[in-house]
Amino acid sequence: MRSWTGTIIGPPGTVHDGRIYTLKIYCDESYPDRPPRVRFETRINLSCVGPAGEVDPRSFAVLARWNRAYTMETVLVELRREMGAPGNRKTPQPPEGAMY
To answer: What range does the record give for the signal peptide (predicted)?
Structure first.
């Protein structure tokens, strides 16, 4: 199994509060030695997410410094933490339910 669907519920006290975000996670044959590719299906304005919804490994520390011990759960938890970071917690968001 290489393709997965993930869900993140936005952290409280942020513009993401209560929103449900859907992501696609793709693990190629080199996983877990190399990080998965992660792409949001639900539109989001987040500093580590590109214009097509892809999570930029250069801008997202978990993917940039991937460790074999990390899991898909690690990626999801850290993305949720990123939503609550000072630079992202109040960033205006697309309308709820908007998709890429």
So the answer is: none
Give the integer Cα–Cα distance in Å for 53 and 51.
Answer: 6
pLDDT digit string (tens) for 65-77? 999 999 999 999 9
Predicted TM-score (pTM) of the model is 0.95
Sign of CA dihedral 65, 8, 80, 74: negative
- Residue at 49: amino acid letter: V
What pLDDT digit, counting tens, does each position of 22-55 carry?
A: 999 999 999 999 999 999 999 999 999 999 999 9
From the list 73, 95, 92, 75, the residue with the least C-alpha distance to 14 is 92
Rounded Cα gap, residues 21 and 89, in angstroms: 15
Q: Where are the alpha helices (DSSP H) in 1-100?
A: 61-64, 72-83
The SS3 call for residue 49 is strand
Distance CA 14, CA 81 (A): 11
